[in-house]
Automatic annotation (TrEMBL), chain A:
It is found in: Cytoplasm; Nucleus, Nucleolus. This is Exosome component 7. GO terms for cellular component: cytoplasmic exosome (RNase complex); nuclear exosome (RNase complex); nucleolus. The gene is EXOSC7. It comes from Lates calcarifer (Barramundi). GO terms for biological process: exonucleolytic trimming to generate mature 3'-end of 5.8S rRNA from tricistronic rRNA transcript (SSU-rRNA, 5.8S rRNA, LSU-rRNA); nuclear mRNA surveillance; nuclear polyadenylation-dependent rRNA catabolic process; rRNA catabolic process; TRAMP-dependent tRNA surveillance pathway; U1 snRNA 3'-end processing; U4 snRNA 3'-end processing; U5 snRNA 3'-end processing.
Automatic annotation (TrEMBL), chain B:
It comes from Seriola lalandi dorsalis. It comes from the Eukaryota. Belongs to the RNase PH family. Transmembrane segments: none annotated. GO terms for biological process: nuclear mRNA surveillance; poly(A)-dependent snoRNA 3'-end processing; rRNA catabolic process; rRNA processing; U4 snRNA 3'-end processing. This is Exosome complex component RRP41. It is found in: Cytoplasm; Nucleus, Nucleolus; Nucleus, Nucleoplasm. InterPro entries: ExoRNase_PH_dom1, ExoRNase_PH_dom2, ExoRNase_PH_dom2_sf, PNPase/RNase_PH_dom_sf, Ribosomal_Su5_D2-typ_SF, RNase_PH. Pfam families: RNase_PH, RNase_PH_C.
Length: 282, 245
């Protein structure tokens, strides 16, 4: 369920626990829940990944299509994001119920991932001003148990790592026009460099402290949270405050520092895991 | 039939199956902890996920409440990346709405709704990867999810899509066969009583062939029911070991 009912007594219990750096499920304030990542799960896509983080489950599929570059940047391809908050995750999303959350999530993803510092957009260009690869990144929420941003960003990074774009050959035909030919060999493909792709870390302010990877219960106790996207070098590329409450500047600094630390530590094991899985598949 | 030969002279189909052979079915129950019932089912390359919530109080407008039985609410959707060509919307288009309605009718025939008056049962199905026979795969996945939720049914509901080529009925069509201009028929069956919960055929077929086709579909559905029964028993065995009974 996307919403949980937490009683006053439960809130006090959660708050006191977090004050002493011990959360309801035994974690410390900067610990993630158990995480499982699986890549190459949907064969109809060019790249896909499924991640489960506690009870949160997210499936990401990436499809590459040939499109026209944006007029402002004729030598770059681009990414499109769509987040499907399906009714499978919670009945509240039935019909158009999940659209608002879906738009909010996809707008944030757009800001975090669709720039040339995160993904090498130039490598997606086929012929300047005419053709480029458009990566349609479709996120499917299968189950929600808090911390959607982090789970989605990790899944996207894994799926981008897994993406195989067919190589193209451009040849000029008799009338001077260009012809694009896709390679038939499934192994003759281009891979994306995901080194600089950031991960999002959400920090929830609960009481006077902040926690990473909050469950729904913990989120119900928090006033507001801060999402920070961090690269493997520890560079912050985007921050946003989400939630109804307010935060004082001091705690924002503290949270940013913590987010940098946690985010930086997240990349190395993730990349190692992805490479391991890749070598096992080959 | 132009181009593709759907059934070779030796009696083999495009993917190497015999005419009456089903695709490989793999399924798991209880995949999600938050839902009341859930199941994941693969039939060949078609993959579906079904989730059941309920029976619970009526949500939204109370005017839909039925005083003598439960309301079954279905939503069918397809992941945007599930098909070869990317879909723009996961649900809400005409085909999905029709599918939702078919699912609802199928499960109204099977679930013992009279046991839960004034309540609602939600069945949500999602196609993750599509390779033909979407409707039947959804029904089979939803059956497992309803069983996982512990909601009583008259019998398993098993569905199968069959086609008719060269005077031969083909069981469990894949996408290449479905799009190859075969007249196909989708059938949902309650196998024990031999009751048909849903029957749908969109293409032309000579009336003399209808009986053979329905007969073939029923045989295929019974085959599916055996597999589903095995999955359920296997799952229960695993669960009972875990709970120490």
């Amino acid at each position: 369920m996307a919403t949980v009912q937490v009683s006053e007594a439960e809130k006090v219990y959660i708050l006191h626990g977090i004050r002493d750096d011990l959360r309801v499920d035994g974690r410390g304030c900067e610990d993630y829940r158990h995480m499982e990542i699986e890549t190459d799960v949907v064969s109809n896509t060019d790249g896909s990944a499924k991640i489960t983080l506690g009870h949160t489950a997210v499936l990401v599929g990436i499809k590459a299509e040939i499109g026209k570059p944006r007029p402002m940047v004729p030598d770059e391809g681009y990414l499109e994001f769509f987040v499907d908050c399906s009714a499978n995750a919670t009945p509240e999303f039935e019909g158009r119920g999940g659209e608002e959350l879906g738009t909010e999530l996809s707008n944030t993803l757009y800001k975090v991932f669709n720039n040339k510092r995160s993904v090498d957009l130039k490598s997606l260009c086929i012929s300047e001003g005419e053709h480029c690869w458009v990566l349609y990144v479709d996120v499917l929420l299968l189950q929600c148990d808090g911390n959607l941003y982090d789970a989605i960003s990790i899944a996207i990074k894994a799926a981008l790592f897994n993406t195989k774009i067919p190589r193209v050959q451009i040849s000029a035909d008799d009338e001077g026009g260009k012809e694009i030919e896709l390679s038939d060999d499934p192994y003759d493909c281009m891979r994306l460099n995901v080194e600089n792709v950031p991960c999002i870390v959400t920090l929830c302010k609960v009481g006077h402290r902040h926690v990473v990877d909050a469950t729904l219960q913990e989120k119900a106790c928090s006033v507001a949270s801060l999402i920070i996207s961090v690269t493997h070098k520890g560079t912050v590329t985007c921050t946003r405050k989400v939630g109804g409450g307010s935060l004082d500047p001091e705690s924002i600094f503290e949270m940013t520092e913590a987010g940098k630390r946690v985010g930086k530590a997240l990349h190395t094991p993730l990349m190692k895991l992805l490479q391991e899985e890749e070598s096992r598949g080959a | 039939m132009a181009g593709l030969e759907l059934l070779s002279d030796q009696g083999y189909r495009l993917d190497g199956r015999k005419a009456t052979e089903l695709r490989k079915v793999q399924a798991r129950m209880g995949v999600f902890a938050q839902a009341d019932g859930s199941a994941y089912l693969e039939q060949g390359n078609t993959k579906a996920l079904a989730v059941v919530y309920g029976p619970h109080e009526m949500r939204g407008s109370r005017s839909r409440t039925l005083h003598d039985r439960a309301v079954i609410n279905c939503q069918y959707s397809m992941a945007t990346f599930s098909t070869a060509e990317r879909k723009r919307r996961p649900h809400g288009d005409r085909k999905s709405t029709e599918m939702s309605l078919h699912l609802k009718q199928t499960f109204e025939a099977a679930v013992m709704t009279q046991l839960y008056p004034r309540s609602q049962i939600d069945i949500y199905v999602k196609i993750l990867q599509s390779d033909g026979g979407n409707y039947s795969v959804c029904v089979n996945a939803a059956t497992l999810a309803v069983i996982d939720a512990g909601i009583p049914m008259r019998d398993y509901v098993c569905a199968c899509t069959v086609g008719f080529v060269d005077e031969t009925p083909l069981a469990d069509l894949c996408y290449a066969e479905e799009s190859g201009g075969v007249s196909s028929l989708a059938l949902a069956l309650l196998p024990r009583g031999g009751q048909i919960a849903l029957l749908q055929m969109d293409a032309r077929l000579h009336q003399d062939h209808l009986e053979t086709l329905i007969e073939a579909a029923m045989t295929a559905c019974k085959g599916v029911s055996k597999v589903l029964d095995e999955v359920v028993r296997q799952h229960l065995q695993e669960v009972s070991v875990l709970t120490g009974e």
